[in-house]
Design a protein that fits this description.
Jelly Rolls, 7 strands, 2 domains, single chain, mainly beta, 179 residues
Length: 179
């Protein structure tokens, strides 16, 4: 909708003083979108600034180390052979973060995680994670309400074949401001 048409109808409803504030916000790009909702902030992948640790890893192959799980590269983490169920990978920050969504990208065809759970440092309830038949589609897990934590851990509860693991473990949210 053209700003002039919207401005005329808003002026009748809210008065000229607030209209000037609204128009300035729209011109700067910080005001409402065309649909009338607030602009959506770009999500931040907090995992990129976290330290990754794991219960185990395949030591003889660099391409399967835990540091691969949060690097946004086509590499993977795989727990040591025979240690699939109960294996875990954890993202830890030096400061508190507020996580609103996690994303788990499975490692490949045949070696599929079918169930797991997210555990958080705040000691609250765990969040169940169900695998997908399509390894190329990341599993998206909404964390509601968002959790303020220093770490998040993914634990494998069930999987197919012996080399279940993750390509990426992403956590989206924001760094918590400290006083």
């Amino acid at each position: 909708m053209r700003p002039g048409v919207r401005a005329a109808s808003l002026a009748a409803m809210i008065g000229c003083g607030l209209l000037a504030v609204w128009l300035a916000a729209c011109e700067s790009g910080s005001g409402p979108t065309e649909s009338g909702s607030a602009p959506v902030a770009k999500e931040t992948n907090l995992a990129l600034s976290a330290k990754a640790t794991a219960s185990s890893e395949l030591p003889e192959f660099d391409m399967f180390h835990v540091t691969n799980v949060n690097d946004d590269q086509p590499s993977e983490w795989v727990p040591d052979r025979g240690k699939k169920i109960g294996a875990w990978v954890q993202l830890t920050w030096d400061y508190p973060v507020r996580i609103q969504r996690a994303e788990l990208e499975l490692r490949g065809i045949g070696d599929r995680i079918t169930a797991g759970r997210l555990v958080f440092s705040d000691g609250g309830t765990t969040v169940p994670v169900r695998g997908t038949p399509d390894f190329a589609t990341p599993i998206k897990v909404e964390v509601f309400p968002p959790r303020e934590v220093k770490w998040v851990r993914f634990i494998i509860d069930a999987g197919e074949n012996g080399s279940c693991g993750l390509r990426e473990f992403r956590a989206f949210g924001e760094k918590v401001a400290t006083p």
